[in-house]
Amino acid sequence: MCGIVGAIAERNISNVLLEGLKRLEYRGYDSAGLTVIRDGQLHRERQVGKVQALVDAVNNDAENFKGNIGIAHTRWATHGEPAQHNAHPHVSGKVAVVHNGIVENYKPLKDELIKKGYTFTSQTDTEVVAHLIAEAYKDTKDLLKAVELIVPRLHGAFALGVVHVDNPDELITVRLGSPLVIGVGIGENFIASDQLALLPVTNRFMYLEEGDIAMVKRDSIEVFADGQPVERAITELDAKHHNADKGEFKHYMLKEIYEQPDAVARTLAMGIDATDLKADFLASHEAELAKVKHIQVLACGTSYHAGMVAKYWFESLTKLPCSVEVASEFRYRNPVVVDDTLVVCLSQSGETADTLSALRETQRRAKSGEIKGMTTLSICNVATSSLVRETEIFIPTLAGVEVGVASTKAFTTQLAALMLLVLKVGKVQHRIDSDVLSSIVTDMHQLKGYLDRSLALDQSIANLSQMFEAKKSTLFLGRGMQFPIALEGALKLKEISYIHAEGYAAGELKHGPLALVDKDMPIVVLAPRDSMLDKLKANMQEVHARHGELFVFASENSELESDERMHVIHVPEVCEYLAPIVYSIPIQFLSYHVAVMRGTDVDQPRNLAKSVTVE
Ligand code: HGA
Known about the structure:
This protein is of the alpha/beta class. It has three domains: about 5-240, Aminohydrolase, N-terminal nucleophile (Ntn) domain (Glutamine Phosphoribosylpyrophosphate, subunit 1, domain 1, 4-Layer Sandwich), CATH 3.60.20.10; about 250-455, Glucose-6-phosphate isomerase like protein, domain 1 (Rossmann fold, 3-Layer(aba) Sandwich), CATH 3.40.50.10490; about 455-615, Rossmann fold, CATH 3.40.50.10490. It is about 35% helix and about 25% strand. It contains 18 helices and 25 strands. An eight-stranded antiparallel beta sheet has the order 3-2-4-1-10-9-11-15, covered by helices on one side. Strands 5-6-7-8-12-13-14 form a seven-stranded antiparallel beta sheet. A five-stranded parallel beta sheet has the order 17-16-18-19-20, sandwiched between helices. Helix 17 (about 535-545) links the parallel strand 23 (about 520-525) and strand 24 (about 550-555). Helix 4 (about 125-140) crosses helix 5 (about 145-150), helix 7 (about 260-270) packs parallel to helix 13 (about 410-430) and helix 9 runs antiparallel to helix 16 (about 485-495). It is globular. The relative contact order is 0.10. Bound molecules: glutamine hydroxamate. Glutamine hydroxamate binds near residues 75 and 78.
């Protein structure tokens, strides 16, 4: 969500901060701000809107923003409207603070500070942090100690960057529930919410743990946990996997749609050889996987839809029961988790606050003995994320950096990784027939070709999308494994085109949504040639009879052709199990082109953020 960047160096750091913010803009983009210490003063600029507005303002006054230490922020408002006075950094006297997360008890703290004579210029929870540090500093005269003193008073999950005019060689940072990484340079160091922000200046990173407070200087980094110095390893990243350039594409989302054949093939290649799973795939975890009796998937948004597909796969291929739940519900409802459950957490960023909390809740209950034999596994696009560090087993999605807020390649690579997991559990437990396994593996080798051919549908779907431009609402229908893809299609369309959309299991149509169908309601149908096709055709007839306009993505051999009020686009025919991956491409193209036609901000849709690090 909000993005933090900070830098301390011998050179002028304002451009490092601004470039970092641009790279973090996917996290939040309602306002942005920056402060540098120069000539014993805080120089601050804050602007509402995109980071570019801040860049322009700073460039207009470049001399004033030359400094060797500074912090910057791109905001996704939680407390107080997006407005200049609410934008970060927040200042109290000589202290400036940037903050990602929520201070849940900010109200009583604010009341206490007002009584002490502090005045507030924003509605944010963040401003209390600045005042608390300023107040504590009066006694400690030591910035690190002041921060250490006030952090235990803050409830919630957050990350902070703090500077003080009288300490121009100290950048303090805190990680307590929100992501924060330190970028390690030579004679200069940096902080950021995501390493992506710092790739232009370093590829060496120190990942803080929850509760860590760090004192970052130009040539040293000291980390403290519970007041005691601790060591945190430095990891060197291979920068070629972190290319966040749009290249020739108009939007990141389009580029990322086009990257899927390679990304999916790369992810599958981790686990398969010619006709079987690779012997070394998850080899060190076979004992844990062999005892699993139930799978519990925890995820949010698009990842939740990937989990729903996996439920179909797990139950039909391995006969193991699989439950899927949105993490924000699971974490609070005291759910039953049976013994020997494999908890599978799905998240693109690995920092999704709800998913992390749901995982931690299961771990707390396992530790107390309430759940026995539980194993945790993450499927994630960021190998260094909290989710990966906090789970026992990790399957990476090799999608590369995904910048578009609407997830595409992270979703299809999650599906690829989930299918590898299903096959592995099935094989270890002798629950999957070896012929079935080898036939799916053989089809997996063909998948890149099917996905490449699906990309060729780009223009025909662009043509079709004109018919959605002026619509108010859309239904997406699918059955079986295509039901979650229908949900995903509806989510994509509403996220980026702002057209209301609903995904339905086609069999449910007559139980309610059929009442919505008329000539103005486009109905998108996912119709691969599978065991449900005849049933689906009957559902399409129900729509047609009520003058609904059908837009059907169907297999080449489905015997469905365009007709009156029925537009058919043929999708390459692929085995039923892998069809959800292939059918993801047309629904992504559809939402992309409708959004472009409606002139929305495709990569950064309003009110949303890429990495949802607040609950
Ligand atoms: N609560 C702060 C920070 C918001 C945030 O981290 N969003 O992701 C604010 O509203 O400014």
